[in-house]
């Protein structure tokens, strides 16, 4: 019930040079669970922004009244990686020893924000739901930790996909929950939900 909402939410997007350079933003209005209305869209050209500084942007909504006020910072990505199983980070014993030394008790208070890393190996899924008429699915897996999100590639026409990917996240809050969701890719349509599991970091 506000025409001037304040969200004050921060999201981390892992931007890689081989991805498209436009950040697409949509603003929606929700009356109830069933009715939603698009209030406007805007775009930000990431390549045009100065790096290593916080950019304050007021973005007018296209073809609609109103604007968005955003703070966007483009900075080198640290601690986040996607790799194949055979070349996963932290696999080298000497590297693991360095990490253990970095996070030992005596170094606990050197950097309060540097809590640690979470490494997730997404191997495969078994007996997924068939989302296509042909009795198959095109599954991919999305990993979310806090406001960080990474995903695997899609394995087409397969109910038992093997991804064999390794994801490394920096941990910002030890009370966060790792959410792993499997979707069925459906062309230009929104992906279909195939299943989800939630893992509190404190349970690891």
UniProtKB/TrEMBL annotation:
PROSITE patterns: C2. Its main location: membrane. Pfam families: C2. The keyword Protease does not apply. It is a multi-pass membrane protein. One of its GO terms (molecular function) is calcium ion binding. The keyword ATP-binding does not apply. One of its GO terms (biological process) is regulation of neurotransmitter secretion. Keywords: Calcium, Membrane, Metal-binding, Repeat, Transmembrane, Transmembrane helix. Belongs to the MCTP family. This is MCTP2 protein. It comes from Anhinga anhinga (Anhinga).
